[in-house]
Amino acid sequence: MIDNALQYNGVTGELVALPFRDKHLITYKQPVQRLYSLKVVTGVGNNEFNPKGTATRGEAAAFLVKMLDASQK
Questions:
Q1: How far apart are CA 3 and CA 14, in angstroms?
Q2: Tens digit of pLDDT for each residue in 7-49?
Q3: Using CA atoms, how far apart are residues 52 and 71, in angstroms rounded to an integer?
Q4: Of 17, 22, 60, 73, which is least surrounded by CB within 10 A?
Q5: What is d(CA 45, CA 69) in angstroms, rounded to the nearest whole number?
Q6: Residues 6 or more apart whose Cβ sits within 8 Å of residue 15
Q7: What does the alpha-carbon distance between residue 54 and residue 37 come to, in Å, rounded to a whole number?
Q8: 49-62 residues labelled b (16+ CB within 10 A) or e (exposed)
Q9: What is the spatial distance between Cα 10 and Cα 48, in angstroms, rounded to a whole number?
Q10: What count of Cα atoms within 13 Å lies in the side-chain half-sphere of residue 43?
C-alpha cells in the first residue's frame, strides 16, 4: 500500500538489491526493493526483514512518516 501511495504521487524508488537474509520469503519483492531504496523500510535488524512477522503500531507509524518524507523530496 505504501509503495502504491508513493507511486500515485509520482515517487518511484529503484529496484535495488536487498541485503536481507530472509529475502527469499518476501512475496512482493519489487515494492520492498523500491521502498528500501527510498529508506522507507530498513528491516528488523540482523540483516533480516521478517516478511511473515507483524508490524507494531510504532513501526507502522514510522513507515507512514518515512513515506511522507519520501513524498516531499
A1: 11
A2: 999 999 999 999 999 999 999 999 999 999 999 999 999 999 9
A3: 27
A4: 73
A5: 22
A6: 30, 33, 34, 37
A7: 21
A8: bebeeeeeeeeeee
A9: 29
A10: 14
